[in-house]
Specification:
With 369 residues, this protein is of the alpha/beta class. The chain has helices at 41-48, 96-100, 110-114, 161-164, 170-182, 199-208, 224-230, 245-252, 267-275, 300-304, 319-331, 350-358; strands at 2-7, 16-22, 29-39, 64-71, 83-86, 125-127, 130-132, 144-148, 152-155, 190-193, 214-217, 234-236, 259-262, 283-286, 308-311, 341-346, 364-368. Strand 6 and strand 7 form a beta hairpin. It binds nicotinamide-adenine-dinucleotide (NAD), ligand AHE and zinc ion. Residues 12-367 form the Enoyl reductase (ER) domain.
């Protein structure tokens, strides 16, 4: 079938809107009509050429929501008409990662997914007879996409696509990092580096968890008001701090953060996030994604003296199980998504979403089809 897609032909170039061909679902696969997709910083990161796994031409996008149109042979858990959120971290419930009880990082299709292919090693998308690659197993920058059954969370039918698509990455990543990964406890002091589409969800997660002090760190003053609305108690602009940021934050939190979260993707702020943690127990969670060749460093003494450095993907969430619950939280008014979706646009204007992100003018842009 013909589908409308934003194609990434080359690193560093804008996406082009084209009609591409999409084959139907094979065994264990599902054809989904995408109704809405968010644009995450990770899409921009891959498009920039900094992603070691970035491959072109590809159809990017990993924060979508839509409706099942057709299922391939052997698909049992979904049927046409079901509302779904595609998952870049699947949940097969059978691999030793899924059954370990220690991680959400299902590996059932990770190898082919990282190569831009479906689990059988081929692509369903093509243009002029040449394959176009999938991205993160989801490729939501197209009005139709094919996704493995294990990479789809079934959600309730009254949830608005243009809002809950954000649960496909940013919301779950931020809130999940607090609840699943850090397991922040009531009364904890939290420092959040980067108040964008992820960091603001860390802040609302910290408020849900009952954190006491929630410090937000960002170079962009315009993020302050929204962060306060979501629960930030103290704002720090590093440009306005005299001297080093780390002792400033340690002093502000009266000894250091119980938990810090890096939501930028900058290896310098990753170090600051670790080192602003409380001696003896502070834990720093890396969420931001850093480019090829970048490495983190610190004095080992920081770890010897009890600070813990951890990371999280998709907020540690097992998607088929937890995403429907997070949709319920939104529908019950327990979490706020609406105020974070600052821009909505048609697919034709998707490059504007990248511009707004780079200019620091949006939190989340959503494309509706
Ligand atoms: P964003 O662009 O919306 O937000 C980044 C924020 O960081 C902005 O507010 C910006 O002003 C601020 N910032 C930039 N440099 C700074 C600095 N030196 N000091 C302080 N603040 C600074 O991006 P996002 O969509 O929120 O994504 C954030 C990061 O998280 C990206 O690296 C993205 O790739 C990553 N990410 C990771 C996961 C995961 O599962 N681990 C999931 C989603 C996104
Ligand atoms: N491909 C990159 C890393 C990109 C990355 O870290 N992706 C996160 C999700 S970011 C969502 O916005 C992730 O889930 N990682 C786990 C995984 O298995 O990919 C690289 O550096 O190679
Ligand atoms: Zn993302």
């Amino acid at each position: 079938m013909d589908v409308r897609a934003a194609v990434a032909h080359q690193a560093g170039q804008p996406l082009t809107i084209e009609t591409v061909q999409l084959e139907g679902p094979r065994e264990g696969e599902v054809l989904v009509e995408i109704k809405a997709t968010g644009i995450c910083h990770t899409d921009a990161f891959t498009l920039s050429g900094d992603d070691p796994e970035g491959l072109f031409p590809a159809i990017l996008g990993h924060e979508g929501a839509g409706v099942v149109v057709e299922v391939g042979a052997g698909v049992r858990s979904l049927k046409p008409g079901d509302h779904v959120i595609p998952l870049y971290v699947p949940e097969c419930r059978q691999c030793n990662y899924c059954t370990s009880g220690k991680t959400n990082l299902c590996q059932a299709v990770r190898e082919t997914q990282g190569a831009g292919l479906m689990p059988d090693g081929s692509s369903r998308f093509s243009l002029g007879g040449k394959p176009v690659l999938h991205y993160m197993g989801t490729s939501t920058f197209a009005n139709y996409t094919v996704v493995p059954e294990i990479s789809l969370a079934k959600i309730r039918e009254d949830a608005p696509f243009e809002k809950v698509c954000y649960i496909g990455c940013g919301v779950t990543t931020g809130i999940g990092a607090v609840i699943n990964t850090a397991k922040v406890e009531p009364g904890a002091n939290v420092v959040v580096f980067g108040l964008g589409g992820i960091g603001l969800n860390v802040i609302q997660g910290a408020r849900l968890a009952g954190a006491d002090m929630i410090v937000g760190v960002d170079l962009n003053e315009s993020k302050r008001a929204l962060a306060e609305k979501f629960g930030m108690t103290h704002f720090v602009n590093p440009k306005e701090v005299e001297g080093d940021l780390v002792p400033y934050l340690v002093n502000l939190t009266k000894g250091g953060a119980d938990y810090s979260f890096e939501c930028i993707g900058n290896v310098k702020t990753m170090r600051q996030a670790l080192e602003c943690c409380h001696k003896g127990w502070g834990e720093s969670i890396i969420i931001g994604v850093a480019g090829a060749g970048q490495e983190i460093s610190t004095r080992p003494f920081q770890l010897v003296t009890g600070r813990v450095w951890r990371g999280t993907a998709f907020g540690g969430a097992k998607g088929r199980t937890q995403v429907p619950q997070i949709v319920d939280w939104y529908m019950d008014g327990k979490i706020n998504i609406d105020d974070l979706i600052t821009h909505v646009m048609p697919l034709d204007e998707i490059n504007t979403a990248f511009d707004l992100m780079h200019e620091g003018k949006s939190i989340r842009s959503v494309v509706t089809f």
